[in-house]
User: Fold this.
Amino acid sequence: MAKRNAFRNASIAVVALWLGLFALLPNAGLLLVTVLQRGEQDFVEPVFTLANYARLFDPTFLRILWDSIALAATSTFVCLLVGYPFAYRIAMARRSVRPWFLLLVIIPFWTNSLIRTYALIILLKSQGLVSDVLLFLGFIDAPISLMYSDLAVFVGLTYTLLPFMILPLYVSIDKLDRKLLDAAKDLGAGSLRAFWHVTLPLTMPGIVAGSMLVFLPSLACFYIPEILGGAKAMLIGNFIKNQFLVARDWPLGAAASTILTLLLVLLIVAWWLASRRVAAREKHEQDAALFTEAG
Amino acid sequence: MFMRRLGMAWVWLVYAFLYLPILVVIVYSFNASKYSTAWSGFTLDWYAKLLANTPLVDAALNSLSVATLSATLATLLGSLAAMCLHRYRFPGRKVLHSSIYVLTVSPDIVMGISLLIFFIALRMELGFVTLLIAHTTLGLPFVTVTVLARLAEFDEHLVEAARDLGASEAAAYRHIILPLTLPAVAAGWLLSFTLSMDDVLISFFVTGPSFEVLPLKIYSMVRLGVKPDINALSAVMFGVTIVLVLLAQALTNMRRK
Amino acid sequence: MQRLLATVVMLLLWTGVAVSAEPKVLNVFNWSEYVPQTVLDRFTKETGIKVVYTTYESNEAMYAKIKLLRGKGYDIVVPSTYFIDMMRKDGLLAKIDRAKLTNYANLDPRVLHQPFDPQNEFSVPYMWGNTGLMVNRKVVDPATISSWNDLFRPEFKGGVILSDDLRDTFGIALKALGYSVNSTSEAEIKAAYEWLLKLKPSVRVFDVTATKQAFIAEEVKGGMSWNGDAFIAMNENPDLAFVYPKEGLPLWVDSLAIPIGAEHKDNAHKFIDFLLRPDIAKLCVEEYNYSTPNLAAQKILDARHAQSRATSPTDADLKNSEFTNGVGKALDVYEKYWEMLKTAD
Assistant:
């Protein structure tokens, strides 16, 4: 009995200590900065104010927030569309080759992402590879450039964040109990129905995890919209960076960061509740199906 | 059968998408032109320059060591955290869980500056240790989220059975939970390693002159244009990775025999 | 007892030696690729001092870090124009001992005694440059381009490149309207914003890092470019031309400075003096193609650089040009309009 508690307590203690020191404390400090005033000599002055939050309720900032969320959501969706079939097919492959497939996904990402982004320019630019291929296939008449466009930004974000979608998806799909799928088929469900009612709900944790690991970083990412998109729009990542570095208005930057975090925590909580309810319902239905099958 | 073929075709298509820019990087590392994105002739000059550029190579080695260590640490702590959050009920559990998500959302610049202030307050010297702590903290939530997703589908009965048979909590973790979540743990390690190798903003603030890392060098070199010697370095690192992977493959095959 | 005494004496001698001589190390915090490796190697060879070179990619990031570290950790930093002003006022820079700089007289008076450091007590110019107008001959005849307002010409439609640096871009707009790049008047800044807003539909990209590539690959038809970038771009693509608009341009200068908490101030002075040598300054210019503040070096530049109007502009070229200086609280106004410009369609 004592041994169990020791391990449990030690684990919790270690994790709590690390997160407390290096995550909670700095973020608490950040929270504090949001209600202080910007300083002349130092970065912040110990004067309490809520003005920073008030200043964020202006149309420019709300527009920046909206643009960023729209971009991140679309990229996440594209990543999901590209990544799910990929992860699914790999998970269905022979057990011995699966790790290699995964490794092959990750290896490109050990090349610095900035360099790969610049390599994308060579593909997307005027008279670049994509243009040449399209020309060759007859889809276009004259060379085109895909640079400095929304499309280029989507390609860049998807490219950079794909493994963060594929890995959690794979992990989830891999765990899938094939017997459930077989049971559904036996009960007369077509492939599509089996997928919709069995596979999809059961792999929902993977989808949620993957989506979060793509959505959240793509919100904060600023260099891809800059390099591939031409920096014509301002996104929340640029805004926060600007406040901290260029405008030297730490309280405003910290407040923006906090609002972002709050919004996303709300989103995550909503997802969480929804997926738990769906999972509970599906589990209930599966238990019922297996029960009737067994009985 | 058709679906399987179609699926495989999609897999190869995605791989092509992922590797095409790498191919571009490698090809352009032989490009004689320093700044142009057009091809102007084959040369090995850049590789020669790379061998002579010791600061760049040093930075690359530094990055590799920090990435490996921080990924390992992040995986250890992250998997532990995931297990704690999944299995145990304790006061402050919700706070811990939320702080994991807050970390994933945290913009790099915020994390970088707040950690720097923290290190300064503790009078720590900026360098390898501070960078290690920062990168571990960076990768930790990614590991936790990935492992938690796997644990969500975990069959509790297995652990119950083991416990009934007299296994301690630690033993249950070591022999049942860890092996069954190994794919998720490995995936988490890979994600953390990637994050560390790529991180620029956090590294900028928390490292010191004694420990320069590759992404910083690259990010500031990019200001004057990505030159082929960076492409040469990337090509070399890519080549080394492939060699290591093939080596590992050969070793696993040997062991099986 | 004897042993103890010997140990104490040895310790004292050891610490005495360690304190009296500066270790042969120099921590340089600079832009990447801003001092040629050959120069650093020569410095080490001649003085025996090892150079540890760390980099930053923007003045703002460098400023934040140095300020948080209270000027400790690095021996040399290279801030641009108005950052010297800020760091000086924040007490982050150490006074430079002119007596230790034997080559100081080589410097061009045009670049000295700027408002951000009137007596040059805290900074020594290293490299300076400007942001001019580059155009592609295939689109317009460069001889017909003489003003920033020419960017509105229909030939440039949809192919303009502006800088992603707010001071630089607002700088050219202010110049186009006849104001100073260091304007603190809200009315003038607003007018500059409206000028830029009118131009925005034609703007293809806001860039700082890949300007020359964009011009070389002909992704853009005309726009802002640093003179050093222009030199390189014109070399790779002969269709490009660099123009000095008649209203003037924003100028910048990067200077060597010593943070107040530097641990190797002696070595730092040696390094600065080394860089002030004409033969060394010449190497730097020929590597990076920006303008040198070193008159002695200017005289011995190779023909390509000496004759290039990009690297070596004439006085007439720079008429009406100004160095970008600090604007104090007005920076908030600039930032506000910058955000509005970026979020506008």
